[in-house]
Amino acid sequence: MTSYRYRAYGLEISSFLVLPELAAGNPGLLPDITIAEGPVPDTLPDAVFRGKRDEVNRSRHLANLEESNGVRFLIEDGSRITVERRKEPVDEILLGLQILGTAMISAACQRGMATLHAAALSNGREAILIGGLSGMGKSTLAFALWKRGWDLISDDVASLEVSKTPPVVQPGYPRFKLYSKSLELLSTATENLSRIHPSLEKYYVPAGDRFENHPRELKRIFLLAPSEQTRLRPLLRQEMFRELQAHLRPGFRVAQRNWPWLLPALGKIASHAPVRVIERPPQSDLEGLVRLIEEDLKR
């Protein structure tokens, strides 16, 4: 069977499915993660977390995505992702998105990485994260920073290697995913861009040679929050820990029960990278937010 080689999060990936969102890998190296088709069990008897679609323990994650796309995943030991088609037809484009989301995030956690719901950018020396819950505009703000000269490390999910001191951010996927409204706001035409899925007005924007393909030390974290006025608010240490918990992917309850090392890892992240909350109205000026971040980094 044909396999395709890619690289993400500092890992070599071998996949049965074409994943054009990823950077090319090195076929001469052994893969760290293999993505293959095969049988997936109905349940994990030793699961310590059971949710509506997920059963998880420290080394295995069973994800039931039959309702959305007719498939199940089994992610094991951070080294293998098995995909079983349970219902036909399977949406192949959606399958790729699900592998790069649910499955890869779980594999990274199993390998000891902390994954946060955030975009990551580099100035060539250090990294910053732009975090926020879905719909807060983190990718849009990250794209605005990219257009100002920052390099993209990862969009939407930041993978941190917390075994290093200070923690480093590993390169993710070399593309932004942006809705047409965000692209219009930043004067970017969609004519030559590919949609991430035919049903969505959301597009891939390749970072090209402005993709940072080396790990970078984490310097600061900015978290977006809704407010009536724009302001930047530094967090106290205990507040940082709580906010980082809220931005974990997968969710905090899953992480707490299955990867106990992750809690002290969050403390380590907070001790090395100050966390700021950027409070902003829904229609706030992007250029003003960019200036706010750049001025804070000069301090």
Cα distance spanning the termini: 54 Å
Number of domains: 2
Spatial strand sequence of the major β-sheet: 3-1-2-4-9-8-7-6-5
Mean pLDDT: 93
Succession of helices and strands: EEEEEEEHEEHEEHEEEEHEEEEHHHEH
The 3D shape can be described as: globular
Alpha-carbon Rg, integer: 19 Å
What is the share of helical residues? 25-40%
Structural class assignment: alpha+beta
Main sheet summary: 9 strands, mixed
Question: What is the gist of this entry?
Answer:
With 299 residues, this protein is of the alpha+beta class. Helix content is 26%, strand content 34%. The longest helix has 19 residues, at 92-110.
Please describe what this structure looks like.
With 299 residues, this protein is of the alpha+beta class. It has 2 domains: 108 residues, no CATH class; 184 residues, Rossmann fold (3-Layer(aba) Sandwich), CATH 3.40.50. The protein has 8 helices and 20 strands. The protein has a 9-stranded mixed β-sheet. Strands 10-11-18-14-13 form a 5-stranded mixed β-barrel. The chain has a 3-stranded antiparallel β-sheet with strand order 15-17-16. A hairpin with a 6-residue loop joins strand 16 and strand 17. Helix 5 crosses helix 7. The longest helix has 19 residues. The termini are far apart.
What brief labels describe this structure?
9-stranded mixed beta sheet, 5-stranded mixed beta barrel, Rossmann fold, 299 residues, alpha+beta
Topology diagram in text:
Elements: E1 4-8, E2 11-15, E3 23-24, E4 33-37, E5 49-50, E6 54-56, E7 60-65, H1 66-69, E8 71-76, E9 80-85, H2 92-110, E10 113-122, E11 126-131, H3 138-147, E12 151-154, E13 157-161, E14 168-170, E15 175-179, H4 180-185, E16 194-195, E17 202-206, E18 216-226, E19 231-234, H5 237-246, H6 252-258, H7 262-272, E20 275-280, H8 286-297
Parallel strand pairs: 2-4, 4-9, 11-18, 18-20
Antiparallel strand pairs: 1-2, 1-3, 5-6, 6-7, 7-8, 8-9, 10-11, 10-12, 10-13, 13-14, 14-18, 15-17, 16-17, 19-20
Helix pairs in contact: 5-7
